[in-house]
Amino acid sequence: MTRSTPLPCIHLVTPDTALCRSLAHVAAGLGFGFQAWRDAERCLAELDPDATGALLVDTDATGPDLRLLERLAPGGIDLPVIVLARAATVDLCRQAFKAGAREFLPLARVEHDLPDALRQAVGQHVLERQRQQRSRHARNLYTRLSEREREVLGMVVEGLTNKEIARALAVSPRTVEVHRARLAGKLETDSLAQLVRQYAGLVDEDDGRPGLVCGQAWGAPLTVAAQRPA
Q: Domains, the chain, ranges and CATH?
């Protein structure tokens, strides 16, 4: 039985009980969880860095100031931040974005603008987390390859044909086909495009080279001498 994906949660930092009730209702209407934090320090100490969702920060004079935003990344928190302002000014807006806010909303516009802002922010955060998970999984699979498999993979993502790889490695094209089949299985890919997209960057990291120019693997196959250092 697989574990269900945790529900994205809207976190609100504010001492205002009425605002908590109002935004809890907004979050529920969007199908998100909701957590209120009266104290910024407790939020920083207890907020799960793996959580998905968004963080709303109330800039009321008695609430947290914008320095909270500057402490999120060092604490491993990457939730998109939406700053809520009771007295919205150009200077406060500028400070909020400079501190890393994704969006800045006057409280007078919250009812109208917040739902769409949350949908976009949470949706992008979830997609980015999924991309990060795929990247970590790909890196983990890559570390399990043998030295020869990495060598073959490097030539494949450079656009070399099986015959060219065979000549470079002094093996038969059939042996190269076997290596490529094993690579597809070990790296959980079912197409050349997927192989290049997911693993070209890791190959370049191994070689200490800059990333492939987009489309390089799809041009005319390059010679081994031109592609790989002696």
A: 9-137 (3.40.50.2300), 144-227 (1.10.10.10)
